[in-house]
Amino acid sequence: MGKYDALATLLLEAIKEGGDFTKDLSSIPVGISNRHIHLSQADLETLFGTGYQLTKTKDLSQPMQYACKETLTIAGPKGAIEKVRILGPARSESQVEILQADCFKLGITAPVRLSGDLQGTPGITLIGPKGSVFLSKGLLIAQRHIHMNLEDVKHFGVSDGEQVTIQVDGLRGGTYSNVVIRANNTSSLEFHIDMEEANAMHLVSTSRITILK
């Protein structure tokens, strides 16, 4: 029984050091996003009133990120889309992430960008209950990406900013290339993709993907 005792001891030591034997290290969970808005505090107060604070309704998978009760109407040259959800907390700059099909309704061509990469993006009008704001930039279609922390980076053998190819399983599965790694000390492991791209391969929130590199 000596070898079994030794194995048990090693397992206990690994658990004490933070090992997680329930985590599947070969695949990555999926987060699917609809169109949404991130606001600066200044724009938030213009749209909802001085001193206004967002109302959190649900925590999101990434630390400190949450969905809010508040929604806005976004308007372009050819049309508008109502009840677009705001995500918190407030940011330094406002931005609006839409779907490709939304471009036709709004009459604006939005580029595919990573969140926060706003230089050269088109503007959009935001309409709230207390006012409106025209953003001179900030409209984009989110580029698919994977959030991970620095330990995940080591495990998967990737680096922050690297573009990888992923495998999607299932009857409508396939591969997606140009998936950007976004890594820092606090991120939770998750592949982010918008609803249009997710529907194309029948991805759901319980799906998992693997990196092919």
What does this entry show, briefly?
This protein has helices at 2-16, 41-48, 102-106, 150-156, 195-200; strands at 28-33, 36-40, 56-59, 66-75, 80-91, 95-98, 112-113, 124-127, 132-135, 139-142, 145-149, 163-168, 174-184, 190-194, 208-211. With 213 residues, it is of the alpha/beta class. The radius of gyration is 20 Å and the shape is globular.
Structural class: alpha/beta
Order of helices and strands: HEEHEEEEHEEEEEHEEEHE
For the residues shown, what is the average pLDDT?
Answer: 90
Number of H/I helices: 5
Strand portion: 35-45%
Number of strands: 15
Instruction: Report the helical percentage.
Output: 10-25%
Sheet with most strands: 9 strands, mixed
Q: If you compute it from the alpha carbons, what radius of gyration comes out, rounded to the nearest whole angstrom?
A: 20 Å
Query: Uncertain segments of ≥5 residues (pLDDT<50)?
Result: 7-12, 14-23
**What shape does the CA trace take?**
globular
Q: What is the end-to-end distance? A: 43 Å
Overview of this structure, please?
This protein is 19% helix and 40% strand. The protein is built from five helices and 15 strands. β12 and β13 form a beta hairpin. The longest helix is centred in the N-terminal third of the chain and has 15 residues, at 2-16. Residues 7-12 and 14-23 have low confidence and may be disordered.
